[in-house]
Design a protein that fits this description.
The chain is an all-alpha fold. It has three helices and no strands.
Length: 77
Amino acid sequence: MNRFTTHPASVGESYAEHARHAFGFGWAMLTGAVACFVHACFPWLHTRTGSRMVVRLYDRMVANRQRGTDEMHGDGI
């Protein structure tokens, strides 16, 4: 394995799958950050957008981790 595939393989993904997920997470984090900056200036806007984004990303990360663990161990859950 090489630098491009070692980590993706460790989480049960190909390089392309991992890149797609990482770009998706990055875009969601950027969107949440912009909403937080807007909220800082205009407190009545985006009152829950940042916290919802954190919860959504956490849920995605945990679900993907669980999926990868199940596939590696054959639990089928």
